[in-house]
Design a protein that fits this description.
Length: 899
Amino acid sequence: MTKHVYAFKDGNKDMRDLLGGKGANLAEMTQIGLPVPPGFTITTQACMTYLASENHLSPEVKAQAEEALKDIEDAVQKKLGDPANPLLVSVRSGAKFSMPGMMETILNLGLNDETVHGLIAQTGDPRFAYDSYRRLIAMFGDVVFHIEKAHFEEQLTALKQARGYKVDTDLTATDWQELVNRFKAIFQEKTGLSFPQDVRTQLWLAIEAVFKSWNIPRAVAYRKHQHIAHDLGTAANIQAMVFGNMGPDSATGVAFTRNPATGEKGLYGEYLINAQGEDVVAGIRTPEKIVLMQVTMPDLYKQLLHYAQTLETHYKDMQDMEFTIEKGRLYMLQTRNGKRTAQAAVRIAVDMTQSGLISKEEALLQIDANQLPQVLLPAFEMEIKRQNTPNKLATGLGASPGAASGKIVFDPDEAETLAQVGEKVILVRRETVPDDIHGMIAAQGILTTRGGSTSHAAVVARGMGKPCVAGCESLILDLRHETLSANGLTLHKGDYISIDGATGEVFKGNLPTVDGKINGEMNTLLEWADEFRTLGVRANADTPQDAIKARQLGAKGIGLCRTEHMFMGQDRLPVMQQMIMAKTEAERRNALQKLLPMQREDFEGIFRAMAGYPVTIRLLDPPLHEFLPNPETLLEEVTLLRLNEPDSPETQERAQLLKTVMQLKESNPMLGFRGCRLGLIYPEINEMQVRAIFEAAAKVKSDGIAIEPEIMIPLVGTAEELKRLREQLENVAREVMRETRQSVDYHFGTMIEVPRAALLADEIAQHAEFFSFGTNDLTQMTFGYSRDDAEGRFLAYYLDHGILPDNPFESLDTTGVGQLIVMAEEKARHVNPNIKLGLCGEHGGEARSVAFCDEAGLNYVSCSPFRVPVARVAAAQAAIRKRKAREQLNQNLNLLHIK
Ligand code: PEP
Ligand code: MG
């Protein structure tokens, strides 16, 4: 018989697949002797079976749950539904990967009109008992029957107003009892049913609602954004209730073992005296900082600190814990590896290694490499902030670092709509709720007026790597008039606002940002990565400034210098246009002659910045019309000119330009007159570029600087193309070397970005010393998806509906495009064993793709400078995992030998 239900004492932390993260960790905490109220977990598998069987909870699941429930009842000496001595339980969801606030929780289950008296008898506190009962009705109504929470909240507000109360704690037992009746009436009105008095009905409906919550839209949206598979299911955890709302010696809270924004060591979090957990997580009341517990509950604080240290040492990772204190007794209700910013992740990993808790390998494996560019997140310069002191609206809690500016929006749907048309927005809310997720994804940053550093907004923003200022209480939000005011300033919807998620500051206006810098700990971690990795890391850089940045970030060379970017400058574009418009070769050469010194100067700067490292320069790639004005705009302009000044020289000149643009326009420019095709038809373009490269190389070399130029031909599909271009270029190279009397060692190679080139890599490799896989084009041409249009058209649908697991332009399609790479590599190495192989598409800076390149045996990857840290760490992780797998294999082989 399949086991669907596990008591906490029977599970452990390695059973996340089956028990979900929450269930597995509750089991682990029970195993290591921490005070966890007894409970059990119904498996994720049972959830998937339930969802597949048209929502039918099987008799075996029920029978096993009944048995486990009996164990809880024995342990706490109470019984579910016993009017004299009732057991109350919580029912919570918990998937393999944490989805903060995404799914469902029901507390106080087991209360009805009779057991509420039993609870009064147990506690001697009717006020508490009726408060608990009304919470159950509201949560049950919301989670199981989708009655909007607002209906219940309205009743509470109305009663408070009628009685002249300010806060919930003013309500008496009779008031709460009155609310229970009102809540039951709402339940009846909205569902046509009475609130279930049968506690078994409550239990099964709650478990089913938890299972169903796996498929509610906000959970589905979160999974998509976080790339979590949709077929994992959620477990349901049923646990004896403990109460943080039983008076001044009760409390509830959340705590991290380290600060999740900065990584600083020490308990960090919040708690609320006399409250239930939902009050903290949902950010409904702004809680106290946890350090204050040292004063209010010193012994319990010590105990909590001890458990926190135990858990961190046990899990060898920073923990995010939930706890409840019931009448002076501390219970642990959850622990998990805490979500953290990239800055914090690096600091924690380095600190844990230096204090001997983990090894360098473990530190590196602990890092989410794709998160690392966050360290380079934009910030506001101190001086800019100083100048904007009069515009400072308020300071809230710096809940997720990074700086962002954008137009104020108060509504998540509006945030999404504006972002779709390219607007930058800041989502401003009282507090966010899981249903706001789409607006949070769309916004540059998030600002809330309530809630702490563990509120929904803060947790989700940190997970997304977005700036967030939370709990900014001095801001006055007027949602009816759509304004925001503080410090004598009032802003309206659509006005610019700037937030600093590191310090919590909020400014009026659109403040400029500067990029972040790598600090000491990051450097340490990256140096460790370099100790382990065997895959080289270069950068894609087109200017001397980018090259300098790439070096600072640890790139050992340039894997792709896109020379066309050098022609885009204001001073160069007109000359480039002259070259394109030239009617004769002489005219073209004349224009090229003007471009030559500009290119030479750039190459010189790049060679100097990359002293001693290879620089791969790719000759002109894009179709020529990309350098000319947009034909539609030009047509409008010429039409107007013809109407207003038909004979002017300007009209004639613009009309001539329009003619050329139309002549050059292609139906499929991506498959058109670009790449090596340009250089074959107009050899003078390549000649100029090669001359500029060698003249620059000769100059830099004569200054005693080591150089290693590599000339790369784009978009080759046949060996003949490469052979001809090589001859053409070698002639120019020899000519310049003769003229400058400087010999320059260089390499000649090509990109592999057309499937045919991969298929015939052995032929092409006979004319190349290196290949660089251009996986942007290779993906485009292998899938047949336009890289310019696919994402805005059908790709989003494909991803939403699971037709594709990932965006192949972001994460390499290892099964399809990957096969072409592996095949090309084998063929190339067969004829040319020393050929150097790299990859320079966007994938070179994405962790999973980098791991693939390491596995495939490429020599290096090349990516945008800010992604260089990702590639360094991902390459190290791949090497470490490979070594571990090898060691495991050897161990298994040894075991076989022994046997
Ligand atoms: C590529 O196609 O992967 C590549 C790096 O070249 P580009 O993006 O410039 O076409
Ligand atoms: Mg390309």
